[in-house]
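# step 3/5: fold
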Amino acid sequence: GAMTRFVISVVLVLLTASNGIGAPATLRAYDPPKAAPAFSFEDITGVVHTNADYRGQILLVHFWATWCIPCRQEMPSLVELSRRLQTNGVATIAVAVKEDHAAVRSFVAKNGIPFRVTVDPTDRSMTPWAAIGVPSTIVLDKKGMIRFRVTGQADWNGPGMTAMIGKLTTE
């Protein structure tokens, strides 16, 4: 509806305004929402995560890499978002692409990453999500449907992202 279009417009303006170095993040809204691909991600601790594990929560599926400078710059804001909203039913799975486990484990330990991290030695995990490049984040609603796609480095704690995720938590 009109409110959704207004929120999306505000998010787009705030996303691009809050972005420092590199190309501004772009946001695509899915209205109507799109079914998320079935997934099974094994995190770096050996735990497997599937779609069913996150029903009833907002889920950010975040594709990134330790060798990607915009990804490294974006990560602190994603960590802050995760810490701030984990009690509000917002979860994150970060999929490190074209990586080896040792580099990712080291990065996670050094940076105190609080969410689930999985490693894809290729980048094939991105294909079913139609994710192009890193960083890319797909935002799923509580029913497991894709609502938003963010391509590029975003400020996850700026007013635009806070409004977008806040709206999903109240649905």
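# step 4/5: annotate
The radius of gyration is 15 Å.
# step 5/5: archive (pending)
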